[in-house]
Specification:
Layout (H helix, E strand, L loop, with lengths): L3 E9 L8 H4 L4 H4 L3 E7 L2 E9 L2 E13 L4 E8 L6 E12 L7 E11 L9 H20 L2
Antiparallel strand pairs: 1-7, 2-3, 3-4, 4-5, 5-6, 6-7
GO biological process, one term: defense response
Protein name: Bet v I/Major latex protein domain-containing protein
Length: about 150
């Protein structure tokens, strides 16, 4: 099988230091976005997430693969859930970096590496990318409202 990848950048206005919610406060994620209904701690790592996609609730079990606080990077591997019926593997990477367009603003880059089970029947994970964009925007808005 062939590993493929897709990327998307999302500009945020909240400081990178506050955007650590994805890393350190995942239990608060359901308060920040309508797309995530719950997030449970499994075996010492945040991993089981109930989320809404296309109007229906879905359950996903992810494992944090790597965290680099200095480089502001975190990776999650999807272990179980509806995405695993279409993809052999999915690795989501979120990286924060300064936006070249203006002082103080940041860019969240989402990279999704995946391996489709069937290249003819399974599409690229565009809906997953759109989900990540929407969650990022809503979390950004939530963090800005906390100031």
């Amino acid at each position: 099988m062939v590993e493929e990848e897709v990327n998307v950048d999302v500009e945020i206005k909240s400081p990178a230091s506050k955007f650590h919610m994805f890393i350190g406060r995942l239990q608060h994620l359901p308060k920040a976005t309508r797309y995530v209904q719950g997030c449970d701690l499994l075996e010492g790592n945040w991993g089981k997430t109930c989320f809404g996609l296309d109007g229906e609730a879905r359950l996903s079990k992810d494992r944090i693969e790597a965290i680099d606080f200095e480089k502001k990077v975190i990776q999650w591997r999807v272990l179980e859930g509806p995405l695993k019926t279409q993809y052999n593997s999915i690795l989501k990477t979120m990286k924060l970096s300064p936006n070249q367009g203006g002082p103080g603003s940041m860019v969240v880059n989402w990279n999704v590496k995946y391996e489709r089970i069937d290249h003819e029947k399974v599409a690229h994970p565009e809906r997953l990318l759109q989900f990540l964009v929407e969650v990022t925007k809503e979390v950004d808005g939530y963090l800005l409202s906390e100031e």
